[in-house]
Amino acid sequence: MAKKIFLKGENEYSRAYYGWQDGGLALFGLKEGYKNSADNLVDVALIEGAKGDIKTLDTYIFPILFCYRHSLEISLKQIYFRFYGKLPNGNHDLITLFDIVKDEVVNVFNDPNFIEDVKKYKKSFIRYSTSEIDFSETRRLICEL
Predict the structure, then answer these.
(1) Tally of CB atoms within 10 A around 95
(2) pLDDT tens digits along 109-145
(3) What are the contacts of 100-103 at 24+ separation with CB within 8 A?
(4) pLDDT tens digit string along 42-93?
(5) Are the C-beta atoms of 67 and 37 separated by less than 8 Å?
(6) CA–CA distances in Å: residue 96 to residues 36, 73, 83, 99, 142
(7) Cα first-last separation, the chain
(8) What is the rounded CA–CA span in Å between residue 108 and residue 115?
């Protein structure tokens, strides 16, 4: 009998259910999974580092950065997906994805003509403001990452 990588667990509370999400929720689930995993790894690394285990700090930084970076990538894709119902053409390049979201979502969202068009079919909506966001600084930080 061939070995299997994944086995169905006997206890329903010890099983992961893959593929339960639709398109929009799949991005949310992926984004949250990577971010929460990174958060948990930071907690472990800090606890072990406080005990003097420098190896954990030095080695966990790579999966931590990977998970945060991937969560950010999926977040940018999710913003675009919620606005257009499709994924952007940025592949895995964070700066390209950020620029696409800034130009094709944020700038359109802030256009007064867009708001007037929305008012034609939506009686009430919450008008969010991006005026407090420093997009140049955000882009610089993404470049650093």
Answers:
(1) 12
(2) 888 888 888 888 888 877 788 989 999 999 999 999 8
(3) 100/76, 101/76, 102/135, 102/139
(4) 999 999 999 999 999 999 999 999 999 999 999 999 999 999 999 999 899 9
(5) yes
(6) 25, 10, 17, 5, 11
(7) 46
(8) 9
d(Cα 32, Cα 25) in Å, to the nearest integer?
10
Helix spans in 51-131 (H): 54-84, 94-101, 107-109, 112-121
Distance in angstroms (rounded) separating the CA atoms of residues 80 and 75: 9
Task: Take residue 63 and report the two structure tokens written for it.
Answer: 């999966």
Domain locations along the chain: 20-144
Residue appearing with tokens 């958060």: 39
Q: What is the pTM of this model?
A: 0.83
**The length of the chain, given as a count of residues:** 145
The overall longest dimension of the chain from CA atoms, in Å, is 64
